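User: My advisor, Dr. K., asked me to get a structural model of this assembly before our group meeting. I'm new to this, so sorry if the format is off. These are the inputs:
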Amino acid sequence: MGLHEKFKLKSMEDLSNKIEALGIHIPVSADIDVLKQPVKLGDKVVPNSIAIQPMEGCDGTPAGEPDELTFRRYRRFASGGAGLIWIEATAVVHEGRANPRQLYLCRKNKDGFARLLDTIMEAAKEQFGPNYRPYTVVQLTHSGRYSKPEGKPAPIIAARNPYLDPYLPDEYSVISDEQLEELEDRFVEAAELASEIGFDAVDIKSCHRYLNSELLSAFTREGKYGGSFDNRTRFLINIIDKIKQRLGDAIDVTLRLNAYDAIPYPYGWGVDKENYRKPDLTEPIQLVKILRDKGVKMVNITCGNPYYNPHINRPYDSGPYMPPEHPLEGVARMLGVAKAIQESVPDMVVLSSGLTWLRHLSPYIAAGGIKEGWFKIAGFGRMAFAYPDFARDLFEKGALNEKKCCIACGKCSEIMRDGGKAGCVIRDAEIYAPIYKAGREGKPPIQSDRLAEHV
Ligand SMILES: Cc1cc2nc3c(=O)[nH]c(=O)nc-3n(C[C@H](O)[C@H](O)[C@H](O)COP(=O)(O)O)c2cc1C
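Assistant: The format is fine. Below is the predicted structure of the whole assembly, which you can bring to the meeting.
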């Protein structure tokens, strides 16, 4: 079975056969009606069990307000039928922006975000009637070692890391305990703004090696934010406690959590100490239980680092290196991690990641996972760029149109790395093919024949 094998699964039967041939376990269900089920989150309701994952478009204004293409994207998402729209990485301080056009939620940008929420609600109501309301989450972030607020790397790290530091430029700073404490308050201020605007929830982003994700694995950091479990989770827990103190239940608090970094211990989190290729979810489960007891009702589970080991993060057909496994094994890992978390907190809503590689067959695994209790909401990332109305098509026609699906070609990520505005080069070519071409000029071609040295 070649690792480079082209995607050629046509039917659910092909998919089941492939799962069996690879010796992995992923539930598959032909009955996709389960995806239409509303999901209760406290006194709110997500109108169905499909979510659009946070997908950064890198298309805000220089000040960090949503701009033309941002509004277009969210209008398309909202009329596309997913019950939950998880708005992309949104910085809480300028220096923590991952690019000069990353969204930035601060008081002077509040009106722009209010217009974004209005746009989402208007588009959704226009399509599905006046009583329809998708659940909205804003992902609050500090990009940490991947900060690039002026377009060139300006890393702010939580701890040294021999696997990731070789990619750092000569100049970088290690964030101090005092700075972290101050930063907690910037997250709280952004949460307050999100609440004033009327978003349903804020996500205290804890994934993909951005600052707070790095803190969770800061085993080697000295001081009160490093070393012990209590110290490494302090930043996240302080932010949640402060939001609850300031805002009570006015806004839900959730998080997108890297439950498994796939980087060796003591530099990665959720990994087996002897073998980083295996998850050890003891600490992630401990954390999620603490958060549940604090009133957090939902957790969006993800794995890996999109810069360092992207095949773990988003199973793909073409990417910066050839993955050492079949993409379906990556899907199985991601869903298996979600399952373990869901089983440990059965009353919480676990949202799963990493389904897009499955294309038109993704609904059968989304439905299978929900039926078997692996997770309660199925999240779709790249699919939403390619096919923003995939949920509506699925509900109305009973299946996805193969010709509209994402093909996991990696071009949306390449646009991001090239500093452009991200979208689907293949299915939304009129807008994004020229951006992709311009960004690639003078760049080396995608190196999908090279096996990652580091995975
Ligand atoms: C272009 C691009 C932008 C992304 N932006 C974000 C983001 O803002 N926040 C986040 O948590 N994940 C982000 N992701 C990761 C996706 O949400 C998702 O986890 C990943 O693509 C795997 O899911 P999928 O198989 O459904 O695409 C991004 C991924 C891509 C390719």
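One thing worth pointing out at the meeting: The pocket of flavin mononucleotide is lined by residues 53-56, 88-89, 139, 207-208, 256, 302, 314, 353-357, 380-383, 412-413, 416, 422 (CB under 6 Å).

User: Perfect, thanks a lot.
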